[in-house]
Amino acid sequence: MLDKYRPAFTILVAAIPGSDQMFALTQPRPYSASTVVRFKDSPDTAESIKVMETPDGGTAYDIAFHPKFADNGFVYVG
């Protein structure tokens, strides 16, 4: 399910349009592979779900939602 909490550098936190969920873009150390996690936007939230890791150890700095995200669900990580 979820990894135990381990400190990570947070690069970005973005609200997922039309939901009570958030994406966080994190790295375990500077200039390392990035991970996107999803969690509920609530002060009581203590868990997150790993959505993806960047391939080949790449570093990502931003998340963008397609203008028609509500229709197609496209999210861009780069």
Explain how this protein is built.
This protein has 78 residues and is mainly beta. Helices cover 5% and strands 40% of the residues. It has one helix and six strands, in the order βββββαβ. It has one helix at residues 69-72; strands spanning 9-15, 21-27, 35-40, 49-53, 63-65, 75-77. The strands form two sheets. Strands 1-2-3-4 form a four-stranded antiparallel sheet, with no helix packed on it. A hairpin with a 5-residue loop joins strand 1 (9-15) and strand 2 (21-27). The chain is flat, with a radius of gyration of 13 Å. The model has no long low-confidence stretch (mean pLDDT 91).
Looking at this protein, list some descriptive labels.
mainly beta, four-stranded antiparallel β-sheet, 78 residues, two-stranded antiparallel sheet, 1 helix, single chain
Helix content: under 10%
Stretches with pLDDT under 50, minimum 5 residues:
none
The largest beta-sheet arranges its strands as 1-2-3-4
Structural class computed from helices and strand pairing: mainly beta
What is the 3D shape? flat
How many strands, which pairing sense, and closed or not: the largest β-sheet? Answer: 4 strands, antiparallel
Our Rg estimate from Cα atoms comes to 13 Å
Distance separating the two termini = 25 Å
Number of helical elements: 1
Order of helices and strands: EEEEEHE
Strand content: 35-45%
Number of strands: 6
Can you give the mean pLDDT? 91
